[in-house]
Amino acid sequence: MQSNYPFTIVPYEEATPEVKLIYDDTKRALGLPFVLNWFACQGSNPLLLQGNWTKLRTTLVEGSVPNLIKQLIIYNVSAQRGCQYCAKAHAVFANAMGKSLGDNFVVTENLDSDLIPVSYRTAVKVVTKAALQSASVTATDFEQLADAGFDQGEIQELMAQADLVNMLNTIADISGIKIDNALLEIDS
Amino acid sequence: MSTVLAFKYRLIYESLSRFSSALSRSTTLDQVRQCLQGQIKYLFDYQLVRFSFYQQGYYVTFSLVPTGSNVVCGSAGLLWKHEQILSESHVPAILDDAALIADSLQPSQLRLPEKPTQIWGWHVAFSADSGLIVSVFSGGDRQFQPADVPILRIAVENLYAKILSIKLIEELGSKQQELQLALSNLQEKNDVIAQLVATQEAVIQYRTQELEHKNTRLLEVSRQHAHTIREPLSRILSLAYLMETFSAEEIMEEMMPMLVVTSHDLDKALQQIISSIDADLTTAG
Amino acid sequence: MLVDDSAICNLMMKKVLSRLFDNLKIHDFTDPEVAYSELPTINPSLIFLDLNMPELDGWGFLKQMQESGQKNRVIILTSSTSTLDQARCASFSNVIAYHTKPLTQALVNSLMQTFQTESFSAGRLPATP
């Protein structure tokens, strides 16, 4: 599927200087020594690449909500939707920060456990719903987040993960990229 | 370890490190309150948490619910009912007496999500007169659990160290202000003394000048007096010296009358001087 | 010319001098102002001047002479033993001697000597006794 026009993988070595600058920025921000396929498949269009990277960085990498919650949300949504690239990649990101959760680990099931703080459970539950069934989000969902201790800024940041993961999944799915070998090596 | 517990600690591991770094960036008690408000929800569940710091009769209490928080400084009177019990007993306890819970919550101005059914309480003494009384009001959907105890313990140790350092910095700051004040007081006194000394110097200089002036005047006066006396005296001496070169007749007829007149002149001069000195003494007295 | 506010002093000097010089013409004044006004008329070969006098004192007299360019020789004859006064006389070139009273025989002798020397050098030798 990699031959599908126009999503040609542009490796770092073949990228224009302008694209190389963006590639370098992704490596720096994510702490990775290589360019993810998700970025490389957009390397032929610097304008879109820049815009999508900016959206990803400001929503997922920066902000005040713990990155782990965001990674769990993206993993959870991607897994439920069936986007293999994103599910795998974000499981690795979540795991890379600590102990491996194991291959058959299903976050949503464990998230339901009383052992996990309400803040995590509520955030993953509400934002997953917002991503997969955006139209069904009501005031009650926001109240739940507030009751879990999230303030207005944090709620906005959490909800932004819903539209981010939809973009991530869409690009990954339609470009047909496969999981990066280097990423798999990190997880093993 | 069960998968879910592994997952929990996986979450908490990151949350604790976030809590620690947010806490270390706080430099005021209100920043500490904001840090607690933002971070504790990622560590464990609660209806309300109380952190009551004390040191030598000085208290700082943080009250925290998921949707709000406050910090108050003051005396032992800030302690809630259950905290007074913990304060004395030092024994960790899970209190489920509904009347006590209601009693304890009476001073609280925060809205709890649900009615708590338990208070988990510790009195952690870090020194003879300083420590932290921590209590978690648990119940409903927000149950505090045994697995949360080590997490709370780490948070409490971090928090205590932070409050202590803020308090120390404040004390140092106020000590420094006191020193600054004392220093400026000293400076003022020094200025006053310097001014006094300067005035004294001026007075001394003035007096010295006055004395010098008087001294000069005294010398002038005595010189004047000496002249006044010496003039007739030298005449008398002249007459005496010349006497031998003159004849008896000349002496009797010319020199003797001169001698009489000049002797009178001398007497007059002396009287004049005495009365002038008398006058000076009278005015000076 | 004798200038001394004490008439007795003048009298004594006159007596001494007239004993020494027979034909000497002596003008004596107790008022220095009058003496100064007579100075050009008399044009004395020597002036005996007292220092301590009321109104115009010896210094004032000397100063006036200096200012009007009168070069008549002056011998100071004063009861003041002050070294300050003596030093001050040096600033007047026509003062040839400074003597303090009382008049003694020795002083008179020395005055006489000075007088003769001065008169000689000035070419106006009075009659010798």
Automatic annotation (TrEMBL), chain A:
Name recorded for this polypeptide: AhpD family alkylhydroperoxidase
Pfam short name (any one): CMD
Residues that span the membrane, as ranges: none
Lineage summary: Bacteria, Pseudomonadati, Bacteroidota, Cytophagia, Cytophagales
Residue span, Carboxymuconolactone decarboxylase-like domain: 52-100
Superkingdom assignment: Bacteria
InterPro entries: AhpD-like, CMD-like
UniProtKB/TrEMBL annotation, chain B:
Keywords for this protein: Kinase, Transferase
Record GO terms (molecular function): kinase activity
Presence of the UniProt keyword Kinase in the record: yes
Superkingdom of source: Bacteria
Protein name per its UniProtKB record: Signal transduction histidine kinase
Organism (species): Spirosoma utsteinense
Lineage of origin: Bacteria, Pseudomonadati, Bacteroidota, Cytophagia, Cytophagales
